């Protein structure tokens, strides 16, 4: 399978701390690919390093045929990578419309695409003219994802989208991500294994800044001993 | 505090604070003619402070830069405008209102253009190397301010410089027993005009949208594909140009200027930026009008308190709203 994104022995420092210790990861084109790991394992740092928000000290990051290891964040975004950070990155003082308009290249919406986004997240239409700070946590997450898909992107990096959300909203997110993954590749960072399992086709497990496991999601979901070893969790205990 | 906030919100929000202040002053002053004169003077002063403060607020808000050199642009604006007005002497003092206006336009235009070009140089050479380092920003912009003051001393000298006022703005408009200086009306109108242009640009244009978004979250603007460093230069130039325009207007208001004109105004400018809310143009306007009105009312009612009045205003507002009256960052 062709890799849309390849990380090769990526090391990242944050201040004096060496956080990523040689991450190597291939993200296949199409579908949802999950990066699992406990708190502080290096998941967010990996996404931020891909986006150029933190610089890799060593190693290479290649998106399609572009070496983006030392590229500026705006240039990386313009290559077709969208980023939904853990804090959602919503502009609270801007309206829902303005938040989404900012994510368009020209400032104009593609009408058909906008209608598809509204169909995925009807709350966006309802709160179109409201300032985003007034939205609930789930609505803000929907806005963050709507902004990422308002124009076609080849790859979407999403950091823990289920954090703090109610189960009903998480179920709606699963449906939305399945729909989005029909036309784009998603690299999803998660701690919620049940959510990740329902979406992911491949999984990589990160711990202490290193990838400690890669493979199909189905194999990991079926192997409780492996889950316990890698994630210190038992899927059965979650069911 | 919550009860006060709720009551004020019910009555129309913080925007009504200047109206409440003016109403209170009307009761305390007791003489309608004095109250009108002080109110117009306060509004004019507020608008000139707004010109100086709005750019600094955006620079703080968008770029997170502590620019203590901002007052240099106020000083340069004042001296450049004074020089242009002095050079166009016959136009300034002549009987033709059109020539008067042209001279004034040339003076304000030259000051503003000088501020924009100086702002570009300042951002590229002095501020850019110290982005994200507040301590160095304070040190280097303070140093640049000292250099700028010495440059003004070298070019214009240390003696006070007279600023001729265009004839069409000299004198007052008298209605009944109320006299209002024409220059104050002009200063108010110019400030209001600049505010309306800024409001339109920030709320109706794509660059304005990017600036408002950048004030909230620079990193996310970059992650959406926009080069925020280009916005930084544009905002710094605009902020410096506005400071110079404010300096030019303040010079005409004072009539006599020294190289300390900028630093003298900076305490009020910082108070306005802080009480208005960093990065908020509406907040800067509201804060500037409050500061202008309070300074004039207190100077009339209790002159000994006038120096402290705006400090007390800032303390009260920060106790009530730690992020300012109209913070740009929400939620």
Please specify the SSE layout and strand pairing.
The complex is a heterodimer of chains A (239) and B (331).
Chain A: E1 3-14, E2 17-28, E3 31-36, H1 43-50, E4 56-63, E5 66-67, H2 73-78, E6 81-84, H3 96-102, H4 111-120, H5 122-126, H6 137-149, E7 155-159, H7 167-180, E8 185-190, H8 193-199, E9 202-207, E10 210-216, H9 217-222, H10 224-231, H11 235-238
Parallel strand pairs in A: 3-8, 3-9, 6-7, 7-8
Antiparallel strand pairs in A: 1-2, 1-4, 4-5, 9-10
Helix pairs in contact in A: 3-6
Chain B: H1 2-11, H2 17-29, H3 32-63, H4 70-87, H5 89-93, H6 97-127, H7 134-156, E1 161-162, E2 172-175, E3 178-181, H8 182-204, H9 206-216, H10 218-223, H11 228-254, E4 256-257, H12 261-276, H13 281-301, H14 306-320
Antiparallel strand pairs in B: 1-4, 2-3
Helix pairs in contact in B: 2-3, 2-13, 3-8, 3-9, 3-11, 3-12, 3-13, 4-6, 4-7, 4-11, 4-12, 6-11, 8-9, 12-13, 12-14, 13-14
What key phrases describe this protein's structure?
heterodimer; A: 239 residues; alpha/beta; Rossmann fold; 4-stranded antiparallel β-sheet; 11 helices; 37% helix; disordered C terminus; B: 331 residues; mainly alpha; ABC transporter involved in vitamin B12 uptake, BtuC; two-stranded antiparallel ribbon; 4 strands; 76% helix
């Amino acid at each position: 399978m062709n890799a849309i994104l390849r990380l090769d022995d990526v090391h990242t420092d944050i201040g004096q701390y060496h956080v990523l210790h040689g991450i190597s990861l291939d993200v296949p084109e199409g579908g949802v690919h999950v990066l699992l790991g406990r708190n502080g394992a290096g998941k967010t740092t990996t996404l931020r390093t891909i986006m150029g928000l933190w610089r890799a000290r060593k190693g290479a990051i290649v998106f399609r045929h572009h070496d983006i290891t030392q590229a500026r964040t705006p240039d990386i975004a313009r290559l077709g990578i969208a980023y939904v950070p853990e804090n959602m990155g919503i502009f609270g003082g801007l309206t829902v419309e303005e938040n989404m308009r900012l994510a368009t290249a020209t400032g104009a919406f593609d009408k058909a695409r906008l209608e598809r986004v509204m169909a995925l997240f009807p709350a966006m239409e309802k709160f179109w003219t409201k300032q985003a700070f007034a939205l609930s946590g789930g609505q803000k997450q929907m806005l963050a994802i709507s902004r990422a898909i308002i124009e076609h992107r080849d790859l979407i990096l999403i950091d823990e989208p289920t954090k703090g959300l109610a189960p009903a909203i998480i179920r709606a997110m699963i449906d939305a991500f399945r729909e989005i993954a029909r036309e784009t590749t998603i690299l999803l960072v998660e701690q919620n294994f049940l959510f990740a399992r329902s979406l992911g086709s491949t999984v990589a497990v990160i711990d202490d800044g290193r990838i400690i496991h890669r493979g199909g999601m189905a194999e990991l979901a079926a192997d409780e001993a492996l889950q316990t070893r890698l994630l210190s969790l038992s899927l059965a205990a979650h069911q | 505090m919550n009860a006060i906030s709720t009551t004020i919100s019910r009555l129309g929000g913080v925007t009504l604070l200047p109206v409440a202040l003016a109403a209170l002053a009307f009761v305390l002053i007791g003489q309608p003619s004095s109250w009108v004169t002080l109110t117009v003077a306060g509004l004019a002063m507020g608008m000139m402070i707004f010109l100086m403060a709005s750019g600094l607020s955006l620079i703080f808000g968008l770029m997170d830069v502590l620019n203590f050199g901002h007052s240099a642009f106020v000083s340069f604006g004042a001296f450049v405008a004074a020089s242009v007005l002095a050079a166009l002497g016959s136009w300034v003092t002549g009987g033709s209102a059109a020539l008067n206006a042209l001279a004034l336009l040339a003076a304000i235009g030259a000051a503003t253009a000088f501020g924009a070009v100086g702002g570009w140089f300042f951002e590229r050479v002095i501020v850019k190397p110290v982005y994200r380092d507040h301590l160095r920003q304070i040190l280097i912009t303070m140093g640049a301010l000292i250099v700028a003051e010495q440059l003004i001393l070298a070019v214009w000298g240390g003696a006070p410089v007279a600023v001729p006022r265009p004839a069409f703005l000299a004198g007052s408009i008298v209605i009944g027993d109320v006299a209002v200086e024409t220059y104050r009306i002009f200063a108010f109108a110019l400030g209001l005009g600049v505010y309306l242009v800024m409001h339109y640009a920030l709320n109706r244009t794509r660059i304005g949208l990017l600036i408002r978004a950048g004030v909230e979250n620079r990193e996310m603007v970059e992650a959406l594909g926009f080069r925020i460093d280009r916005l930084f230069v544009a905002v710094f130039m605009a902020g410096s140009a506005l400071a110079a325009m404010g300096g030019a207007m303040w010079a005409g208001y004072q009539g006599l200027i020294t190289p300390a004109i900028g630093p003298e105004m900076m305490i009020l400018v910082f108070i306005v930026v802080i009480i208005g809310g960093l990065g908020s143009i509406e907040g800067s306007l509201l804060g500037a009008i409050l500061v202008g009105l309070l300074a004039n009312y207190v100077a009339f009612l209790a002159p000994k308190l006038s120096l402290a009045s705006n400090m007390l205003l800032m303390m009260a507002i920060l106790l009530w709203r730690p992020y300012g009256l109209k913070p740009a960052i929400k939620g």
